[in-house]
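Lab notes, practical 5.
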Amino acid sequence: MSRQLVDHDITPFEAAPGLIYEKRPARTPDGAVAEGLYNAWIWLDNPAQFNSYTTDMVKGVIRAFRTASNARDVVAVVFTGVGDKAFCTGGNTKEYAEYYAGNPQEYRQYMRLFNDMVSAILGCDKPVIARVNGMRIGGGQEIGMACDFTIAQDMARFGQAGPKHGSAAIGGATDFLPLMVGAERAMESGTLCEPWSAHKACRLGVCLDIVPALKVDGKFVPNPLVETERYLDAWGRIIHGEPKTGEALAKAKEIVARGTIDLSLLDAKVEALCSKLLLTFPECLTKSFEELRKPKIEAWSRNKENSRAWLALNMMNEARAGFRAFNEGPKNDREINFVALRQRLAQGEPWTEAMIESLIPGTK
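Output from the prediction step:
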């Protein structure tokens, strides 16, 4: 007997620029369609800017997760990006540089939306899988780590960018990374901003699994840019996923240039995980991931508001310089002269518009 169900959404879901929301049929492990059940796929759709999220996209993500969370027929949520270059590279630096830079009061309101986006992921009533189709950098890494699972194609890279571009990784990374990889590795990622290969990220526990995506001569091959074979280092630790160098790197780049990216194995792996989640008691599953999320949620809740305030004020100096440099600088030179900045600050020079202008690459 059918019954009229109560609508628990605050507002009806509406399509947002740069965001795609779709429901795909849920399948059992043998591939059969589970009639009337779905997985919600939430896509960041800004591939021309490496799926960096604009203000409108952030609003769309919040609404999409709330819709998926309340949907009675949704089993799991897949969060991903369009294309094969990037899952997400964080906030849209063009918007940051041209609107938010120098406007801390505006950026503070924006960061309320960003915080709500992270909280929407952490508070979703359905398990959330990050399908990492390419780079997961900066804020992209942060919203990815808020997800419950990560499945990545092995050409993807993971990392932070804040201190190189005028910010700090306090949109979740400083909360989640120590929990996931330990203090030392978290320090490495959050301060040096050197990206990890998908192989290294998987070894360290940032993602659950990786699959090949590069096809050469019709066959899938592991990422040739990294050493994927396991070996023992001088301390007897098992290492893999470290970048190749020298002649080996040059040969690896030649292989990449000959190949094409095929994400079919990634999709199959994501669907397989969704199928495993399907075959569980739904309320027991929900209670389990709610409990397992607690360390992330507790760390995130302690810091998100004071982080929002600091990030807003930072838009008056370092972020203003860093985001403008990235947006206005030459393609291969988007960082300021850090040595010159430190020298000038050491001499007591105050932050001024003229100082910021002089730090932009390509300016005199």
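Observations recorded by the TA: The two ends are 75 Å apart (CA to CA). The chain has two domains: 19-213+262-315, 329-364.
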